[in-house]
């Protein structure tokens, strides 16, 4: 899996899968070989049917594999298993790490939402999570986020734990570097790429410039 700083998340809805697949290839290509290279893509289609999620996974995984980008599924360890994904991201109400590990086995990545809580991150780490995610750091229109995190939680986690950490929530090219400097191993991005002025590839170029 690539070692870049970006953790891409799909838009909550994809209306033209062929067009989005091409956009994804362009975005991954813009980041290839740079600090902003996408370490992974999370398929996060909210409200989609299982078949729609699996069809999207079937279209997008080959693009990720070609670029050395991991492919994770949001919420559903069972769909991650069916899709042959590299892992799953679990929120606090999406089931346990133990359940997901039983389904996916070792060698698959299981991430856990920890809001701004070191306690939740410790619980996730003890349960065997492969990464923890803190957020939201900034206002976001992508998810009605009831929780807020401050960069200090990244610095504290970096000092006390070895489990990799992802920062998420309203992150832009102007704010990404500060979160990496505070301790984030990855910055999770959705709208700053997919809704970027000039299009998603231009959005990735802005992160390449900001993180180089
Ligand atoms: C990397 C990452 N961090 C947090 C989330 C949010 O997960 P969750 O709280 O389960 O909310 P939904 O994404 O399911 O709406 C995430 N998806 N990815
Ligand atoms: C999916 C998600 N989870 C969050 C959390 O705080 O746990 S914030 C968020 C939205 C991330 O998208 P954008 O980069 O467009 O803000
Ligand atoms: Mg969830």
UniProtKB/TrEMBL annotation:
GO terms classed as biological process: thiamine biosynthetic process; thiamine diphosphate biosynthetic process
InterPro entries: Aldolase_TIM (IPR013785), ThiamineP_synth_sf (IPR036206), ThiamineP_synth_TenI (IPR022998), TMP_synthase (IPR034291)
Annotated Gene3D superfamilies: Aldolase class I
Listed SUPFAM superfamilies: Thiamin phosphate synthase
Gene Ontology terms for molecular function: magnesium ion binding; thiamine-phosphate diphosphorylase activity
Catalytic activity: 2-[(2R,5Z)-2-carboxy-4-methylthiazol-5(2H)-ylidene]ethyl phosphate + 4-amino-2-methyl-5-(diphosphooxymethyl)pyrimidine + 2 H(+) = thiamine phosphate + CO2 + diphosphate; 2-(2-carboxy-4-methylthiazol-5-yl)ethyl phosphate + 4-amino-2-methyl-5-(diphosphooxymethyl)pyrimidine + 2 H(+) = thiamine phosphate + CO2 + diphosphate; 4-methyl-5-(2-phosphooxyethyl)-thiazole + 4-amino-2-methyl-5-(diphosphooxymethyl)pyrimidine + H(+) = thiamine phosphate + diphosphate
Residues binding 4-amino-2-methyl-5-(diphosphooxymethyl)pyrimidine: 42-46, 74, 113, 143
EC number: 2.5.1.3
UniProt key word Transferase: yes
UniProt pathway: Cofactor biosynthesis; thiamine diphosphate biosynthesis; thiamine phosphate from 4-amino-2-methyl-5-diphosphomethylpyrimidine and 4-methyl-5-(2-phosphoethyl)-thiazole: step 1/1
GO cellular component entries: cytoplasm
Broad EC category: transferase
Cofactor(s) listed in the protein's UniProt record: Mg(2+)
Keywords on record: Magnesium, Metal-binding, Thiamine biosynthesis, Transferase
HAMAP family: TMP_synthase
Function: Condenses 4-methyl-5-(beta-hydroxyethyl)thiazole monophosphate (THZ-P) and 2-methyl-4-amino-5-hydroxymethyl pyrimidine pyrophosphate (HMP-PP) to form thiamine monophosphate (TMP).
UniProt-recorded name of the protein: Thiamine-phosphate synthase
Species name: Parvularcula maris
């Amino acid at each position: 899996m690539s070692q870049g700083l970006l953790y891409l998340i799909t838009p909550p809805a994809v209306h033209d899968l062929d067009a989005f697949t091409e956009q994804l290839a362009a975005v991954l290509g813009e980041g290839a070989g740079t600090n902003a290279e996408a370490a992974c893509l999370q398929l996060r289609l909210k409200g989609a049917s299982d078949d729609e999620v699996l069809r999207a996974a079937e279209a997008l995984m080959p693009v990720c594999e070609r670029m050395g980008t991991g492919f994770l599924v949001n919420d559903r360890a069972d769909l991650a298993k069916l899709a042959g994904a590299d892992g799953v991201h679990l929120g606090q109400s999406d089931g346990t790490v133990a359940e997901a590990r039983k389904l996916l086995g070792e060698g698959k990545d299981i991430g856990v939402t920890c809001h701004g809580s070191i306690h939740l991150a410790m619980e996730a780490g003890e349960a065997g999570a492969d990464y923890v995610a803190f957020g939201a750091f900034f206002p976001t229109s992508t998810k009605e986020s009831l929780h807020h995190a401050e960069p200090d939680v990244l610095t504290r986690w970096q000092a006390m734990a070895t489990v990799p950490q992802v920062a998420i929530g309203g992150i832009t090219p102007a704010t990404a570097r500060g979160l990496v400097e505070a301790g984030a191993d990855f910055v999770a991005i959705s709208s700053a790429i997919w809704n970027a002025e000039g299009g998603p590839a231009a959005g990735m170029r802005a992160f390449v410039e900001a993180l180089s």
